[in-house]
Amino acid sequence: MIKLSKKKKFNQNLRNQKTIYTIQSAIKILKKMKSANFIESIDAAFHLNINPKKSEQNIRGSILLPHGTGKKIKIGVFTTGKNVTVAKESGADFVGMEDLASIIKKQTIKFDLIIASPETMEIVGKLGPILGPRGIMPNPKFGTVTENIQQAIQEARQGKINYRNDKNGIIHSNFGKINFSEIHLYENFLTLHNNIKQAKPRQLKGIFYKKISISTTMSPGIFIDYLNL
């Protein structure tokens, strides 16, 4: 049997594993927990009543959180012509073509987001086996394949996030940091929750959410009363 540290035991005892909490109460509990020696992210896990093996039931989307994520992200941009200057002036961390592809293949820099203009997709497409599993393959649905490079970078810096379900039908997404105010975390969560809810496939009957939980980077999860949001 694994022996829990005092910190983990304290955090475990702050919530009842079998209780379903309001989102406001859950956020309050997370903020009372003893945190790690860094500013932890707060994440949500949405367990969906979908069949991930059916492409028409897979959920993906993007949303600009009202208060951002608090996360500093590293952005790589594939583009050409005047957009190279635009990307650099807009705050991209690296702008290139074959040289950027080489960096990604060698994984010498870990990017959190890749943006591409349409004419570069022949090069970017070959990076699918690397970028796809990490969830950062440029996609028009996410606004990461675009002519408007400046807008894409600005939105990413402001807190735009992309989400998609995994093979188990679960969407994992960050919606802030533990040092955010309770109201900012609540508004971010509600924005994310409502956006995912609107993506429910039309052909899907019955419930959409099976359960939802939130947690910090190091804390145990807390189940949310999603029926009364």
From TrEMBL:
Molecular function in Gene Ontology: rRNA binding; structural constituent of ribosome; tRNA binding
InterPro entries linked: Ribosom_uL1_bac-type (IPR005878), Ribosomal_uL1 (IPR002143), Ribosomal_uL1-like (IPR023674), Ribosomal_uL1/biogenesis (IPR028364), Ribosomal_uL1_3-a/b-sand (IPR016095), Ribosomal_uL1_CS (IPR023673)
Keyword Ribosomal protein: yes
Keywords: Repressor, Ribonucleoprotein, Ribosomal protein, RNA-binding, rRNA-binding, Translation regulation, tRNA-binding
Gene Ontology annotations for the cellular component aspect, listed alphabetically: cytosolic large ribosomal subunit
GO biological process: regulation of translation; translation
Pfam family membership, one: Ribosomal_L1
CDD domains: Ribosomal_L1
Organism superkingdom: Bacteria
Subunit structure: Part of the 50S ribosomal subunit.
Sequence similarity: Belongs to the universal ribosomal protein uL1 family.
Function summary: Binds directly to 23S rRNA. The L1 stalk is quite mobile in the ribosome, and is involved in E site tRNA release. Protein L1 is also a translational repressor protein, it controls the translation of the L11 operon by binding to its mRNA.
Name of the molecule in the record: Large ribosomal subunit protein uL1
Organism for this UniProt entry: Buchnera aphidicola (Cinara pseudotaxifoliae)
